[in-house]
Design a protein that fits this description.
It is built from 19 helices and 22 strands. By secondary structure, the protein is of the alpha+beta class. It folds into 5 domains: about 110 residues, 2-Layer Sandwich (Beta-Lactamase), CATH 3.30.450.20; about 110 residues, Beta-Lactamase, CATH 3.30.450.20; about 100 residues, 2-Layer Sandwich (Beta-Lactamase); about 80 residues, Signal transduction histidine kinase, dimerisation/phosphotransfer (DHp) domain (Helix Hairpins, Orthogonal Bundle), CATH 1.10.287.130; about 150 residues, Histidine kinase-like ATPase, C-terminal domain (Heat Shock Protein 90). α14 packs antiparallel against α15, α16 packs parallel to α17 and α17 packs antiparallel against α19. The longest helix has about 55 residues. About 20% of the residues are buried. The chain binds adenosine-5'-diphosphate. Adenosine-5'-diphosphate binds next to α17 and α19.
Length: about 600
Amino acid sequence: MYDSHSLFQVLEAIEDGIYIINQEYTVEYMNKAMVKLFGEGVGRKCYRLINCSNRTCPWCRAYEAFSGKQASMEVDVPTVGKSFQVLSMPLKNSDGTVSKLSVYKDISLRKQQEAKLKSTEADYRRLFENVGCGVFVSSKEGKFLDANSELLRMLGYESKEEFLEIDIGRDLYLRPKDRKAFQERIEREGRVVDYEVDFKRKDGTAIPVLLTGSVRHDASGRIAGYEGINVDQSQRKAMENELKEAHDFLNRVIQSSPNAIMAADMKGNIIIWNHAAEEILGYTSREIINKMHITDLYPEGLAYKVMKMLRSEQYGGQGRLNSYPIFFVRKDSSLIEGNLSATIIYDAGGREAASVGTFVDLEEQLAMERKLHQTQQQLLNSEKLAAMGRLTSQIAHELNNPLYGIMNALELTKTEIPPENKRRRILDMALSETERLTEMLRKMLTFSKPERAEKVPLDVNEVLDEILLLYGKQLRENSIKLNASFDAEPGLVLGSKEQLRQVFLNMINNARDAMPEGGSLDVMTSARDGRLLITIADTGIGVRKKDIAKIFDSFYTTKDSVKGVGLGLSVCYGFIKDHGGNIECESEPGHGATFTISLPLFEHEK
Ligand code: ADP
């Protein structure tokens, strides 16, 4: 149907190389594409043309075509550096001979792609093996199908065969329920990212890992297993722990400081508050951190002053404040005095990031200083008193003898005057005043030279009983109601009966003097914590607060010169101190005074 001319035209148009050889391997025809590939060659031997060789090409299968068969093969032709899909077929000539027609289809590109693909697979394998984390493929049922050497190393397995045998749920997961949770999640969501879980190494030790995986489907689209990576977290965890330990240690250092340590960010929000700060200023860290402002702790205007000082050069250098005396406001609004040292903390870029302050509470120290001052004052007073005592005793001695002379003379004169005589009353008055004088002298002598009385174990209740018995009448006459309440088992006190009598008597007399219009007098004893407390309380005129400290001083009296010399309480104080005890006075002016004497109880051997 077609003439051979138009057939050749078709061959010319084809892009694959086509040529025909006769049985002598001489090229009879080449289409354009073939000429383009190998150059003009009609009349030449095909192997010279194609392979530049004197022998048939190594891949030549022309004999098959000459014997009537088709052949197809892939051929690399080094002379042109290309690969071809070669198709050879017999071509019967009209003279009965057979020629061979070959089609050279250039497949170099496909070959290259295939080669590239091959290398990608190798790359993947290399990546799989060398990547710095454990890579796995596992079945839904819980076996590993593949794992890289890093995963084996991480988990302490030497042989892959052994690893592929383990039961994941039982041998790998530290807590099997974690695998269940992982499976549920991955199957629900298709993938799981950064699942934190603890695995077991071959030797049973735990290893924290971060697991990222996705599901694998089988040909029918069902989930067949999982694949993914495991990243060893032990180093990160160890670092986290180290960091936490360092943080905890620092925190303990801050918390255990006896001084208040506080820090605030640059907006003034409090961010650190230690135990001492809680104790000294009364706010718990919970109620102050991120809730209160540092300026809330200063008396008005002081915060601004401190901030200014911190930024000046004068108080310890820029950004520092050294031991500056200051007041803070406690939670109960009271002020507390102490020293503040503060520093501004700068960030890496040199910008102000926070400020830290250490506050040393000086209340106790200041109280001690005040006490020391007081003691020094007392010491000074006692020296003065000693000197005065010596003088007093001399005067008392000097006065004693003439006084007794006067008294004797008066007594004598008295016998000579009959009782009904008016002068007798004047004489009695003179006598009683002289007796008062001798009593005063006696007190002055006791004060200046307190006798070292012998101390014996005694029952204070008994001493008080005797006194109250003797003085009961006098108290009643002064409209004073006596209430005595004694501890049933007060224990014994090592003391001088004489001195203690004098103390109680003095106090009862003072109480009586404080209640000129009458009132009530409570005398109580109670033993507590190894001490005996004796309380003598009246409902009299009382003592003003500012005078309480003075009443124990010698010669302090508010009574007229006839009634008092102001030595009673100072002698009492000396006696009680000498007994290892103490006297305290509490009073509300107009409502009475309460004197509490405490004495150490005698611990006798049983
Ligand atoms: P005197 O009794 O000689 O004044 P004291 O040393 O015994 O000396 O007392 C000193 C002062 O203490 C008294 O003058 C009085 O002002 C005050 N005082 C003592 N006891 C009481 C009391 N119970 N109530 C009120 N004031 C008292």
